[in-house]
Design goal:
eight-stranded mixed β-sheet; disordered C terminus; Rossmann fold; binds NADP nicotinamide-adenine-dinucleotide phosphate; 36% helix; 17 strands; 14 helices
């Protein structure tokens, strides 16, 4: 069965080809694709492989697509990929022709051979429809106007089990816009596990370079070896730093500046939810690791960051359960609840994101706050075993949980200071604001955080 579809796109052919040749972006424009990842990290060429999780007539299956041919001339680019599954094999060809300097024509064809050829007439009608939707989605994904939906007024608690799980991601995915790869220098904390590892691998496939900050030197060496084994050709710098030790956090930032490793994108990802309380210099450890350390890193590095850079703070939907409470941030309530201490610290991190964004606006640096929904990571298994056991079937995988972080890192949307989930701005509270104000909260928080700053930059 041979299907061919085409569409015009108002972008230069080169730009469109750069996007579509990274077949791992297909989940942004093919509604049938539930997940897509690169299996190697070298620049895309003949032999590059992609794992595509495809939902075909309601049945989900993994396909490994392999680039057979790829090439470009002045006004024509082409790519041919093949895949083999139990019930069919497919050869897909994408051609992009220049029309004007700023527009092109994309032709997509698929040659599908079924093991049981009698099924073909039934499938053809379905595939023709899929092909039409595919071209429409691709055109929309690549539209230049990247308008964001306005944030909701508040979060309906009854909708949480839908939006925070993989169901929510799958729903929102159908409206995703193109993530155009823009190789940047990324500093990420906690890259050795869960979301951090997924973010690092996905951004490595997009040609980014890295400053990795982790507490375990053996894990960081293993991560580096894994990336290089997958063909990564960029630069990787690493620093060992425990976020619970604020002196080391400051020393690490100073070293990063001395080594000329200040990033374009700072991702404050490392965090933990502890079962037991512990005070570090009179402050609850959760507050130190999940709030003060990321604040210090932003504080130290942002004066060195260039206009166009951004900071991404990974907060949590757990913060919906807490308002800003400085007394409790300092000393945990008794009896200790790890979830409560975590929710408070993440609330603080979100308030900090809003306030820092206001401060850094003039310097052209944006600060984004986001939460990943509920994702199946070692962190969740270890800190919330009961929750993990009950919700495992519905949890997002790390790729889905980290998608918005990757998107923020590549797109740096112009709405800084917002709180995101699945590329959509969110309400920060369960209920309408009622007397709260972000400027007031930020003032109270910065008075508290200020005591940990030491000498800091003028614009913070
Ligand atoms: N997964 C979810 O459903 C979920 C939901 C909401 C928010 N989040 C947030 O997403 C981020 C990533 O979490 P995850 O689920 O991927 O958890 P994870 O698998 O436990 O990964 C956390 C990372 O942070 C590092 N880390 C923890 N404590 C540290 C410390 N004291 N110093 C330096 N590094 C430290 C860990 O290092 P090691 O590898 O050495 O342990 C690990 O690399 C966190 O900010 C978390 O709060 C996750």
């Amino acid at each position: 069965m041979f299907i061919e579809k085409e569409t015009n796109i108002d972008r230069p052919a080169e730009e469109v080809f750069q996007y579509v040749k990274d077949f791992s972006q297909i989940y942004e424009w093919d509604n049938q694709v539930v997940e897509a990842q690169r299996l190697d990290l070298a620049p895309i060429k003949e032999g590059s492989k992609f794992k595509i999780v495809y939902s075909f007539m309601g049945v989900t299956q993994d396909l490994i697509y392999n680039i057979e041919t790829i090439g470009s001339s002045a006004d024509h680019h082409y790519l041919q990929l093949s895949a083999r599954a139990k019930m069919f094999s497919a050869t897909d060809r994408i051609e992009v022709h220049s029309v004007t300097e700023d527009s092109c024509r994309l032709v997509y064809s698929a040659d599908i051979k079924f093991t049981i050829s009698q099924t073909e007439p039934f499938v053809r009608v379905y595939m023709e429809r899929v092909g039409n939707v595919l071209m429409k989605r691709l055109r929309i994904a690549l539209e230049k106007a990247n308008e964001c939906e306005p944030p909701q007024k508040y979060l309906n608690p009854l909708s949480v089990p839908f939006w925070f799980t993989r169901k929510g991601w799958n729903q929102r995915r159908k409206g995703f816009k193109a993530t155009l790869s823009c190789p940047r220098k990324i500093l990420i904390t906690g890259p050795t596990s869960g979301l951090g590892r997924s973010i690092t691998t996905t951004l490595a496939a997009k040609g980014c370079s890295f400053v990795l900050v982790a507490r375990s030197s053996s894990k960081i060496e293993q991560l580096k070896a894994d990336l290089y084994n997958l063909g990564f050709e960029g630069t990787l710098k690493s620093y060992v730093c425990d976020m619970a030790d604020l002196k080391t956090v400051v020393a690490t930032c100073n070293k990063i500046i001395d080594d000329d490793q200040v990033p374009d994108v700072l991702i404050n990802n490392a965090a933990a939810l502890y079962a037991k309380p512990l005070e570090i210099d009179g402050i609850e450890r959760t507050t130190v690791v999940d709030l003060i350390a990321p604040w210090l890193i932003a504080q130290k590095l942002s004066p060195q960051m260039l206009a166009g850079s951004c900071i991404i703070n990974v907060t949590s939907g757990g913060m919906y359960a807490a308002g800003l409470d400085i007394t409790e941030l300092k000393r945990a309530r008794k009896p200790f609840s790890g979830s409560r201490a975590y929710a408070l610290a993440k609330r603080g991190l979100d308030v900090m994101s809003w306030g820092l964004n206001e401060k850094l606006k003039e310097a052209g640096i944006r600060v984004h706050s986001m939460h990943p929904g509920w994702a199946d990571t070692p962190g969740v298994v270890d800190s919330l075993p009961g929750f993990h056991k009950v919700t495992k079937r519905w949890l997002r995988n790390p790729f889905q949980g980290s998608d918005t972080i990757v998107w923020l890192a590549m797109n740096n949307p112009e709405q800084g200071g917002e709180f995101w989930l699945d590329r959509v701005r969110q309400s920060r509270y369960l209920m309408p604001a009622g007397g709260r104000s972000m400027p007031d909260d930020y003032l109270r928080l910065s008075n508290f955080l200020g005591q940990f700053s030491g000498p800091v930059a003028s614009h913070c």
